[in-house]
Amino acid sequence: PAVDGSACDFGDPPVYADLAAHELVGGNAWAGEMVINLYPDEVDADAILASMERARDMLGRALTLDAGQDGDVLHVRVINETGHKLPSGYPEGRRMWIHVECRDADGVLLREFGAYDWNRANLTTGDTKVYEAKLGIDQTVADLTGLPVGESFHFALNNVIYKDSRIPPRGFDNAAFTLVQAAPVAKGYSDEQYWDDTAFLLPEGTTQAVARVYYQSASKEYIAFLRDANTTNDKGQVLYDQWRQTGKSPPVEMA
C-alpha cells in the first residue's frame, strides 16, 4: 500500500505520499508471544506485539472472500491478492482453510464445515478446503534413513512434494511453475487462475450461512513432532509448553 515516507537519500530526502510500504512481516501473529515469555529481559515486547498486529493486518489484506447462493448450494470463492502462493512460505504446519456455519431462523447451528476445536487444536478437514503444502520422503531416502515413506516434517530429508493446494498468484502459468518445481500437486489450477471455488451443500432449514477463511501458523501435528523428535535437550518440550500457554497457535480470521 502507498504510505508517507522518504526514499533513500544521503542528504535531506523529500517526503512522498505514495511510497510503497515494504514491511515483510509475514503472517505469523502468534510466535512472538512465546519469544516474549521466554526472553522477557532481552526483547522489546511492545515492538514484538506491534509486529504481530502488522501480521494480522497483512493477513486481512491477503485475500478477497466472495460467497453466493444457488439453490441449496453455497459457492465460496477465495481470491489471492498477494504476489505469491497463498499461503506462502515453507510449510511448517502452516495452513489456511474455509469455515462455514449454517444456521436456521432461530440461530440454531445446523451444520459446520471446517470445524476447529479450539481446546484440542484439531481441525476437521474432510468436509472443507484446506490450502497447504505437505512434503515427505520417497523410498530412496527411506532406505537410507530408516524412516517410513510418505509425508514427513523432517525438512532436511524431504525430497517429495505430496500436496501443494495453495492458491497461485496473478500471472500463474503451469509450465513456468513446473519448470522451477513449484507446480500445484494433487490440486489443479488453470493458467492465469489466482482464485479457488468451493461448493457447500446447505442443509434443509438454513436461513443464514457465514463463510470465513482462517490462517494458522503451526498445526498441533507439527508442534508435537518437534517435541517428540528432539532427543538432544528439552527445547522441544519447552516449545510444546509455550504452544499450550499461548493459545496453541490460534487461527487468525483473514476474511
Give a short summary of the structure.
The chain has helices spanning 31-38, 45-60, 139-145, 174-179, 220-229, 235-245, and strands spanning 2-6, 15-20, 63-70, 73-80, 95-103, 109-113, 116-117, 122-123, 130-131, 133-137, 150-151, 160-164, 195-201, 208-216, 252-253.
Describe the structure.
Helix content is 23%, strand content 30%. With 255 residues, it is α+β, with helices and mostly antiparallel strands. Strands 5, 6, 9, 14 and 15 form a 5-stranded antiparallel β-sheet that branches. The chain has a 3-stranded antiparallel β-sheet with strand order 3-4-13, with no helix packed on it. Helix 5 (220-229) packs antiparallel against helix 6.
Structural class by secondary-structure content: alpha+beta
Overall outline: globular
| Count of alpha and pi helical runs | 6
Q: Characterize the main sheet.
A: 5 strands, antiparallel
Helix-strand string:
EEHHEEEEEEEEHEEHEEHHE
Given as residue ranges, the uncertain stretches (5+ residues, pLDDT < 50) are none
Based on DSSP secondary structure assignment, what is the total number of beta strands?
Answer: 15
Q: How confident overall, as mean pLDDT?
A: 95
The proportion of residues forming helix, as a percent range, comes to 10-25%
Radius of gyration using CA atoms only: 21 Å
Question: Which percent range describes the beta-strand content?
Answer: 25-35%
Gap from first CA to last CA: 18 Å
